[in-house]
Amino acid sequence: MMVIPDNIKAIIVNRLRGNISPEERKALEDWQCQQSVGDEELAEYDKVWEESGNLLSQPHFDIAKAWQCVDQQLKEARVDENAGGRVVRIRRYWRGAAAAAAIILVAAGSWLFFHQTGRQQVTLTKVTADATNKYFRLPDSSLVLLRKGATITYSAAFGHSDRLLTLSGDAFFDVAPYEKIPFRIQTERAVIKVLGTSFVVNNSVNTDRVVVVTGKIMFTDKIKPENKCIVSAKEEISITGHTLEKKNVSDSNYLAWQTGILRFTNTPLKVVVKELSSYYGKTIKLNDTLKTGSVTLTASFGKQPLKEVLEEIAVITGLQYRHQEDSVTIY
């Protein structure tokens, strides 16, 4: 049976009741994509919902009656005598029973949520740093700095019954300590759990990376939760595919997008261009000779246009550069 977050359970119930909002539908589709849940799996819930007689629409949710639906499915399950039929029917039986049990849990929890609080749908807050980096405080007083283009999403329960948010892009977090409700961040590949700390999350196309500034975090592969690691201050961890790599922080520029300052000390040029590419959002490459060379750079750049930085690198190293349509090549 699928393990479904509480906010997704409530959205599924709204879907079954026919009053799902466009925002909730988008959140459900994103969750399906992240967890590889197909429409056919959600269809199991539709089927059981129809057979249950739309119990949630009743003014008083009857859990006993809901379980009767499960019992009825158990009674109707028949095992054929031949071996082939036995396997098929047992699988169908357990899948149906699991779906029915799940829908009862979803419906019961959602009935309490809707009828005790009077709310009819999950409210999601989405914050995006559109034009520039964006500072703001979460409901639990944690401080967040979103890098330009980054987005976080969290429910109305944040700071009350949970502290779970979803992040796309890069962000710095200074988390308010509250041991009873751990702070959790979901990215495309990982779940980051903290109690009170500050750290940076880089969420890119192929890799998720966390640099811990103070405190500790638990970093967990979202698809393979047994693949996890504790990361302490001045350490960083990254995940590519399902491979975790933990090491001491050697990158002095992990907060450059926040401070606007880039510092390099005898740094290999291939590392310099990688960090410049990340900071300026433009592809910067070395020609084939420099890729295998030993050229290093010692310099500092403070909130300068890319053209000025390239000019200074050319003066310091004696190299040249050329602009192409969407990239720069140093040679």
- Mean pLDDT across all amino acids: 77
- Residues in helices, as a percent range: 25-40%
**Total DSSP E strands:** 19
Please tally the helical runs, counting DSSP H or I stretches of 4 or more residues.
9
Order of helices and strands: HHHHHEEEEEEEEEEEEEEHEHEHEHEE
Main sheet: strands, sense, barrel: 7 strands, mixed
Q: CATH first level of the largest domain: which class?
A: Mainly Beta
The CATH architecture classification of the largest domain is Sandwich
Tell me the number of structural domains: 3
State the CATH topology of the largest domain.
Answer: Jelly Rolls
Terminal CA distance: 56 Å
Round the Cα radius of gyration to an integer and report it: 26 Å
User: What low-confidence regions span 5 or more consecutive residues with pLDDT below 50?
Assistant: 53-64, 77-120
Estimate the global geometry from the Cα principal axes.
Answer: elongated
Keywords: Membrane, Transmembrane, Transmembrane helix
Protein name: FecR protein domain-containing protein
Domain FecR protein: 128-217
Transmembrane segments: 93-114
